[in-house]
Amino acid sequence: MDFLLIQILNSLVYGMLLFLLSAGLSLIFGLLGVVNLAHGSFFMLGGFFALSIISSTGSFWWALLLAPLPVVVIAVVVEMVLLRKLYHRSQLDQVLLTFGLSFVLTDFVEWFWGKDLFGINEPAPLNHSIAFLGGAFPLYRLALLGFGLACAVVLWLVIERARLGAMVRASVDNAKVAMGIGLKVPLLLTSTFAAGAWLAALAGVVAAPILGAFSGIDVEVLIPAFIVVAIGGLGSLRGSFVGALIIGFADTFGKAYMPNAAMFLIYLAMIAILLVRPNGLFGLEPVRN
Amino acid sequence: MNKRILTGAPQTRRTVLKSTLASAATLALASPFVSARGATTDPIKIGCLNIYTKAGGVFGEAIYDGLQLYLDQQGGKIAGRPVELIKENDEFSPQVALQKIRKLVESDKVHIVAGPLGSHIAAAISSYLKGTGTPWIVTGAGDTVLTKQHLPHMFRATLSNWQVASVMGTWASAHLKKEAVYIGSDYLAGHDNAQAFRETFVAGGGKVVKEIFTPVGTNDFSAYISQIGGIAPPMVYAFYSGSDAVRFVKQYDQFGMKSKSQLVTFQSVLDGETFPAQGDSALGGVSSGIYCETLDTPENKAYVALFRAKHQNKYPGVFDESGYTAMRIIDDAAKAVNGNVEDVPAFTKAIASTNIVAPRGPVKFDQITHQAIQNVYIRECVKIDGAVHNKVIDTIHEVGDYPPNRA
Q1: Helix, strand, or coil here: B134?
Q2: Residues A7-65: pLDDT tens digits?
């Protein structure tokens, strides 16, 4: 029973981590209709900027606050200069752009910080483990669980309830009419892309004490993020949340009972769900026409 | 197709005469440079085929840096000849590796190949290099079975997985505990390690209670660690490399396992390359390896000083030393043939008779399998001057190749 409880807790924590990873991707796709293959790179940059901020200030909390900001700046520049020109083009063009961008950003990371493996320590009050069912459970992971839940709630409020979500969706659906009724369309589009990048970078900072920071991590997190978004349904934040939990449980329990097949189980889950619901669990029709 | 491209200038007698004269003039002018190969001032070319990007890149770069470090120490020359290091990225893909090795051997005409890191890359290029007979010094790939082929021109100047893992099996069963759980990466090297550790651990009276293999690139080990916690063995043997090694050790510590099950590992799990990211999580871990940066010998002290003069904020790791010693072996062998590395049989024989004291200790080659015979050190992670280091707590001398390989 103890074993089961610990694995349930592990599943929840891993699920929250996956949700944080995929929230930014889901947001950008859901509201803008853009498949952002540079999502992993924004995640990676968040971790690396946190590394630099921590080595100069010694504080994880400053890193949490400030590290996503340079990533947002990069995202804003990318959106205004490059991506905006491709909103009317096919999704393939957007994919190619963001894919190329990911190569550029990876090279930048290797050039600026190097190819070594880096780690970040958990911040001071959270770097203990609490006694739990005969073993110890890292406090930081519990904090991650809470943080993920908090983010989910805030995102849901902003997108589903506030007008902001509706405004962005209107701008994407029909920019001319949206502008006609007074919406500042370019600002909304740029802000949405920047928000998605901010979420990715924030996830990068928060995940760094567990996953580390190194130049291949962008590819490593992109795949689970896409699986979560595919399962949950492209464009649905609620779907990402549920999808992340499903993968968290499938992965953790798979590892516990079938260690050799663990990775395959995730893909099996994805195939099974997509066979039954091709648009994902809570998927809407694709945003773009 | 544009027809104009296909027809050239009309062939008149004038053009034929002109072109003949031009070719003759070129040949005459070029002939001093097209002298017989083996002229003593031609550069010695070394093909450095390895992984230089993404995961694994840091190790490939370390090996290349080691080669360069020794070369710089010799003023860029070996046996009186300048040296050209040709760097090619195998991108950890056997297909790309085959393309690049063909380029190095046939187009660049390298005299010797140094590399690679990936065992699957080594396997892919070994039959090609067997065909061309190009001297080859393996600097990273550790799969036990590579030296079973008895390739006459191949020399593994680094560890074999069996050497390092089997020593720990014997040592741990004698000095630590008699029961262990094995956990490692699910690829060739992971299974190599499991077999080597199990055979000698059991021979020493120990018992491997469970073997767990995790996918390469696992980012969350919590499920596996909780599982091990449930079994509660007195000791855990782990094999990981790169980011897996960093994460496993950190998470093992975070789940409070260090005080419950002694962690013993392969060289790559607790080493100079992983300490900066692992921090204090690494302390108390015991590993076996062929090098230790705190080795208290004159050769190592000189090498570490040389390395730190170039990289102030790092200590050398296994791969740095691997490149450095590989170049030393090439240098000694080239001197033994008076610089005439084009004489492949003599050059190969000279490499085979290597008998040096490298920063890692004595190194010579098994005459049948060409595996390096060297010391394996039992190292413990401790804090020295506020930084995490490996400290040698035992030495097993002259560890040779896997006995069945010699058959």
Answers
A1: coil
A2: 898 899 989 988 988 888 888 887 787 888 999 999 999 999 999 999 888 889 999 99
Partner residue facing B255 (CB), from A118, A122, A138: A138
- CB pairs A-B closer than 8 Å: 114
User: Of 3.40.50.2300, 3.30.559.10, 3.90.1560.10, 3.10.180.10, which CATH number belongs to B44-159+296-370?
Assistant: 3.40.50.2300
pLDDT of residue B381: 95
Q: Provide the ipTM.
A: 0.77
CA of B387 vs chain A CAs: smallest distance (Å)? 15
CA distance B319 to chain A (A): 13
Across the range B390-406, mean pLDDT stands at 92
**DSSP structural state of residue A122:** P
The predicted model scores a pTM of 0.81
Residue A265 predicted with pLDDT over 60: yes
Set of chain A residues whose Cβ sits within 8 Å of the Cβ of B243: 117, 212, 214, 216-217
Write out the CATH class of domain B162-289+377-406. alpha beta
The chain A residues in contact with chain B (CB within 8 A) are 2-3, 6-7, 10, 13-14, 17, 106, 110, 114-119, 121-122, 129, 134-138, 140-141, 210-212, 214-217, 219-221, 251-253, 255-256, 259-260, 262-263
Crossing angle of the two packed helices A39-57 and A2-27, in degrees rounded to 10 = 110
Predicted local confidence at residue B16, as pLDDT:
62
The answer to whether residue B391 scores a pLDDT higher than 90 is yes
For B236-263, give the DSSP string. EEEE--THHHHHHHHHHHHTT-TTTSEE
Nearest to B273 among A117, A129, A219 (CB): A117
Share of residues in chain B with pLDDT > 90 (%): 67
> How many Å separate Cα A160 from the centre of its chain?
18
User: What percent of chain B is helix, strand and coil (3-state, nearest 5)?
Assistant: 45, 25, 35
Amino acid present at B215: P
Sequence spans of domains, chain B: 44-159+296-370, 162-289+377-406
pLDDT of residue B56: 78
Question: What does B216-243 look like in DSSP terms, one character per residue?
Answer: TT----HHHHHHHHHH--SEEEEE--TH
Which region, left, alpha or beta, applies to residue B55 given φ > 0 means left and ψ of -120 to 50 means alpha? beta
pLDDT band, residue A210 (cuts 50/70/90): confident
State whether A212 and B213 contact (CB < 8 Å). Answer: no
- How far is Cα B65 from Cα B44, in angstroms, rounded to an integer? 18
Mean pLDDT on B116-132: 91
* Cβ separation B226–A3 shorter than 8 A: yes
